[in-house]
Every structure is written in structure tokens, then in C-alpha cells.
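Predict structure. Chain length: 169.
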Amino acid sequence: MADPRPVGGSIFRIHRDVRFSKDKSPYKTQAAMHFRHSVGKEVHGPGFYLHLEPGEVFAGVGMWHPDSRTLGMVRDAIATKPARWKRIMSDDGFSAQYRLGGDSLKRPPKGYDPDHPLIEDLKRKDFIASKDFTVEDACAPDFIDRYADACRGAAPFMEFLTRAIGLPW
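Prediction complete.
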């Protein structure tokens, strides 16, 4: 869902938080937008992301730094529905376009079998994936259509995450 509000909406602010940074330049060098689930109120819920910066353009999908309860719900869904998760991860519409990223634990999380076949996914602290675009892609007249196609390709991944945390899809 796109939120047009200038503060707290889909478009991230252009100012940097310089309080704890050595680099005190006041402005970001990128524009970014986050399209959250309709019931989501924060950046950490499931959503679609677009990053535009000179030399770096990408689409992002998923959940970045979810709280521990939400993280546990996603892990439980993966552990109890491994075939569905594998099917989504190997689907050509997703795997050909996106690469998984984010932080992971060094050891298996408490309560999960260290020998689980999907233990590497269960160790994830972020459930995000990204697809790169070129600057030329971003400047093309049909870029919004390409971005929308990329979002559609990630729909099964996003549906899994959204349903895993008990939200409607």
C-alpha cells in the first residue's frame, strides 16, 4: 500500500540522522520508498521497497529486522511448511530475479533442530530479498512496469511471510 503522507508515509525522508555518525553530511544520496502491508505501521513489517541512487537501483521485498515474536512466527512457518518454503525459493519467478540477503545467526536459534534441512533459513534474522536494476532501467519510460513485474515475481514469497505472521494476503 502506498502512503502519500510526507511524514511517516511510503517515501523515506531525505535527511540523515547524523547524531551518532562520523559523516555529518545532512542529506541522503538516495531516494527510497517502502510499500507496507495495509495493516503495517512500521518499516519492519512485510513490504516492497524501491531504492534509487546513482549507481545503485534495486527492488527489495520481505521483512527487515522483525521483532523476536514476528521472527519466531516466520521461523515456525518455515519449520512446519518446509515443502512450501522450498517451492517458493526454487520458483523461477522468484529465484531467477531475487537473491536472499540480510543478517543470520551463527548458531541455530533456540528451539529448532540443528539438523533441520532448512536450518540456514531458520537462522535468518531478516527475511529480505533484492533484485538489481541498472540506472538505465530506472530512467526508462517503462520502469514502473518493470518494478511492478518484479513485485509480482516476489508475490509467493511475500504471501508466505504475510500469512506466517497472521496477516491477510
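Summary: The chain has a mean pLDDT of 89.
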